[in-house]
Amino acid sequence: MGKYLIRRFIQLVVVSFVISVLVFMLVHLLPGDPTTQILGANDTAANRAILLKQLGLNLPLWHQYTIWLNAAFHGNLGTSYLNHESVTHILATGAPVSIELIVISQVIAFAVAIPLALVVSRKPNRWLDNVSTTSTFGLLALPPFVVAPILVAVFAVGLGWFPATGYTPFTQAPLTNIHEMILPSVAITAGSIAVYFRLLRSDLISTLQQDFITMARSKGLSNVRIMWRHAFRPSSFSMLAAAGINIGSLIAGTFVVELLFAMPGLGYALVGAVEQRDYLVVQGLSLVIAIAFVIIQFIIDFIFTIVDPRVVRE
Amino acid sequence: MSEKNEFSRRTFIAKGAVAGGAVVLAGAAGSALAGCSSSTTSSSTTAAGASSKPGYGVGTPVRGGSLTIGLVAEIDGFYPPNNHWDTNGYLYAQCLYDPLMAIAADGSIQPYLAASCTPNSTYDTYTMTLRPNVKFHDGSPLTSQVVVNNYTALKASLLTGQALTQVASVTATDAMTVVFKLVAPNPGFTAGLATQVGYMVGQAMIDQVNAKVALPTPVGTGPFVYQNWQPNNHFTCTRNPNYWRQGLPYLDQITLKPIPDTIQREATLKTGGVDMIGSTDPNTIHRFQGQSGYQVVDSANDIIGEPSMAFVMLNTVVAPTNDLSVRQALAMAIDQSTIQKIFGGGFTKPVNGLYLEGSPYYTADTGYPAYNPAEAKKLVAAYTAKHGSAPSLQLLTITDPRLAQVVQIIQQMWQQVGIDVTVAQVEQADIINDFIAGKFQAATSYQFGAVDPDINYVWWSTTTVGPVGSIALNFPRNSDPVIEQALLTGRHTTDQATRVQAYQTVNKQLCKDLPYLWLEQYIFSEVATSNVQNFANPTLPNGMAGWGFDEGIFSPTAIWLSK
Question: Between chains, do A32 and B430 touch, taking CB under 8 Å as contact?
């Protein structure tokens, strides 16, 4: 397992380096530059030249890259051109929001998808399975920007159960925080429920036809024990892989929900920075998000080795 | 039409003004040169239990309470020389700072932090006496040296410096007197002191910026003191117990929350998450008008200076829009009333130029082409016969769902008269680049909100025209010497009648040249719960009524909450 993980770690480092180059280059290939945003209609050639020098944008790209990467290694991802807020500060304030949103949404997704899949896979193609399969298919077609306004209209404006927008840090007021988090979490969890349910259901149905399950049944083990101890683990492989990709995508993909619910998360900050051509913020956030994605995949790989040790041997 | 910020009345400084004299209006001598006749802060609805006039207080002011306001967007900071203030930015500023001058309800410019500001006989030197006993939040006094230091920073800034190119020097002649020397006479200089470059910050804040502090703590003389700011989440300020205006403010605390999505912002108001919301979507007015428990104030029919106008801008130096007959055909093909019905929420009226009826600059007959698709077809046919093909152009807009609908309607209208039209959507930053470089044929925009017409000099002057590819603030590249002469006349004259005539000439000439096809007024609104009192009825330090609702900007100083 050690060799396997070391190999994965080396891949992680290489991928992270490539990501850093791509993030740096891609941002510089975008049309426009930050001077346009900062200067606005004062955008004269003279002013632009002064500002480019002030921001170091007149240096060769490789030089800008080395400066940026060196600073990043020292925990300095730069400062917003526009409001002079440090990228690390943006990360420090935005990451807890996005992470909490993702964690709660995934907890809800697993809490709904796993039991449901375990129940329906025992008796596929019955009414409950058909209803569940059809419903989750529908959930897949509902993006968060559709779900969110419906949830707000019904549960905030209509029933008054939850606030329509807002975010209070958990450390300040835990109950308020959870109360505010429920609607946005549900808004982004719909797709996850559908994916996890469908993958797990499919794999469970397949697993339940395996000989070792027949053997377990013949030994008189209870259905609950068979499902949880024998069928679930080998069937969760696809779901785990999907969860890795899904969670990684959500790190930046929560922006729609963050925007709609006025939550100061990473996605919200990233989209705002892209719109404003705030290069260093885009670079810093993209780098951290991309590397977080890679690290999550690494963790998922590690979990695979526990769930199924054959992965290491293969 | 879009909530994304373009060039609104107040974003002018932020987006920038290049030419000298960009920040101007009525002379400090009084309202003789004021660019308008009266304030028209609109009162759209009166809900049960609310005041008789929305935004005006009823009964005795009550001290205390906390007010939460939902904003359209977040700002990028609090330091006037560095940060881009739009309507939202000014609300933060109104909490923390005070301007040297302010706009009265009658459109005149009145002293605020200044006790007086007097021009010399040639209007190229202004002597300002500061109000005594004004202290910043850190206890330091407002002195002439602090004002000079503010202007040193403002003039050195790439953002605000261009707006102050008309200012040759700012000097302190004694502890409370500041002298502004201008490079040329300008009877309307003081209007600029009511904008971003007129809000004074304390020396402590300037020192923080000079020491490269990333996010300097705001230090102002304003009615509220900064407490905390989490960008994209909330900003909180509390009552300034030592505010120089006796008895004010009434509120203990104000919290500002950016909620970018209009529907979510409205939902938050309905669910009690905020007490007030701002909007630039006319449908917000429609949705809250007459609803019990709410009061709505909007900028419809606002006749102080120039209101913001939504329009299609045409490039006058690239084909086919460089042909006046094509521009005329495009103008005649647009049915303004249809666009207003669909997108104006029923609150906009037909517009024939820069001004609304009631403004002293308004003229009923500007010469702007009326909706006439038959005549448009004839013009297109003539163009086609001359060039061998029908005019073909691209209509540019930003990535905004409402604007996408607008351009689709316009596209249909133009296609019906035989013009080949494609539509393209780009990001806000990119479209401004295209405007500056002249890389467009037709594009949607909104602009020209200004307390005085002269503030818009840079956008129409022949001195700011440049070839395509070069930087030019006259985006349509409409080089008209008649307009230039009228603009200069309006700027330099001290005679109000001459001034009015000059800006009427500008208006008519723009309708003749057709670099802009007018669509509708760009309306700002504020919706508040009925217990929020007096948010659109400020009083200036000299006792005059202030301009209550300046295109989305209002003063929090005299707001109170009824029980």
Answer: yes
Q: Please, what is the Cα angle at A212 between A210 and A215, to 5 degrees?
A: 120
What is the value of pTM for the model shown?
A: 0.81
- Residue range A269-278, pLDDT digits in tens: 888 887 777 7
Percent of chain A with pLDDT strictly greater than 90 = 25
Residue B56's nearest CA partner among B539, B563, B551 is B539
Strand residue runs (E) in B441-505: 442-447
State the smallest CA–CA distance between residue A165 and chain B in angstroms.
Answer: 6
Chain B: residue whose CA lies nearest to A93: B230
- CB pair distance less than 8 Å for A84 and B82: yes
Q: Which residue of B has its CA nearest to A259?
A: B260
**Beta strands per DSSP E along B11-84:** 42-45, 66-71
Terminal Cα-to-Cα distance of chain B (whole angstroms) = 36
What tokens does B499 get? 């001034």
What b-and-e string marks burial along B546-563, b requiring 16 or more CB atoms within 10 Å of the CB? bbbbbbbbbbbbbbbbbe
Q: Decide if A166 and B429 are in contact by the 8 Å CB cutoff.
A: no
Nearest to A157 among B17, B84, B267 (CB): B267
Q: Are B265 and A152 inside 8 Å of each other by CB?
A: no
Q: How many CB pairs under 8 A join A and B?
A: 133
Best probe of the B interface among A100, A145, A165, by most B CBs < 10 A, is A165
| Interacting residues of A310 by C-beta distance below 8 A, sequence separation 6+ | none
A123 burial type by CB count under 10 A (0-12 exposed, 13-18 middle, 19+ buried): exposed
Residues with Cβ within 8 Å of residue B131, at least 6 apart in sequence: B111, B113, B114, B115, B142, B244, B541
Residue B179: both structure tokens together: 């002298």
Inter-chain CB proximity B265 and A153 less than 8 Å: no
pLDDT tens by residue, B128-149: 999 999 999 999 999 999 999 9
How far is residue B521's CA from residue B354's CA, in Å, rounded to a whole number?
A: 9
**Using CA atoms, how far apart are residues B482 and B504, in angstroms rounded to an integer?**
12
